[in-house]
Amino acid sequence: MAQSAPGFWTAKPLTELTPDEWESLCDDCAKCCLHRFEDEETQEIFFTNVCCRYLDQESCRCTDYPNRSVNLPDCVTVTLEVLQDPYWLPATCAYRLLAEGKSLPEWHPLVSGEQHTVFDSGNSVCGRVISELEADNLEHHMIDWIS
Predict the structure, then answer these.
(1) I want to staple 141 with a disulfide (CB 3.0 to 4.6 A). Which of 10, 48, 96, 117 is the partner?
(2) Is residue 74 helix, strand or coil?
(3) Domain count, the chain
(4) In which domain, by residue range, is 126 found?
(5) Which residues neighbour 78 within 8 Å (Cβ) at sequence distance 6 or greater?
């Protein structure tokens, strides 16, 4: 992987990021891997503690990332097009934050220089979720600890 300049996300618009830079924006919080509900009238998002079956709950990484869209056709790949209206992404998602003209939080690994700060700050789902293979009625698994 090519080394990016420190702070590249502040110096370049999203449209100019390299593929490696784009991927490095993901902090591996895995919030986007949770099942959620949407109020269609208000577009309010309600998260559950139920994660995709492909999420490794120890590392908060997809166990088959290259094939995620084949394995789960409704797994959304974050693209510039998706970021035209990112309301459904978690409020702490780096892609959403940058698309909205906001800064990355101090716990983001690109800012802190350490991957563990995502977990230490309480922004990781690791240790707080169950697999969809274990879940019953999703409505019984709604949570309020995601921002």
Answers:
(1) 48
(2) coil
(3) 1
(4) 26-141
(5) 32, 89, 93, 95
- Answer whether 15's CB lies under 8 Å from 6's CB: no
Which tokens is 28 given? Answer: 């591996």
Consecutive sets of 10 residues in the chain, 147 residues long: mean pLDDT of each? 77 96 96 94 95 93 93 91 94 97 97 96 94 91 89
Going by their DSSP bridges, the two strands 61-62 and 34-38 should be labelled as: unpaired
Indicate the pairing of strand 45-51 with strand 55-56.
unpaired
Q: Is residue 21 part of a domain?
A: no
At residue 43, what is the residue type?
Answer: Q
pTM for the whole structure: 0.90
Secondary structure, 3-state, 14-58? HHHCCHHHHHHCCCCCCHHHEEEEECCCCCCEEEEEEECCCEECC
- The one-letter code for the residue type at 119 is F
Q: Which amino acid is at 140?
A: H
With 0-12 / 13-18 / 19 or more C-beta atoms within 10 angstroms meaning exposed / middle / buried, residue 36 is middle
Whether residue 18 lies inside any domain: the answer is no
Sign of CA dihedral 10, 12, 15, 20: negative
- Do 53 and 138 meet the contact criterion of CB atoms below 8 Å apart? no
The reply to whether 6 falls in a domain is no
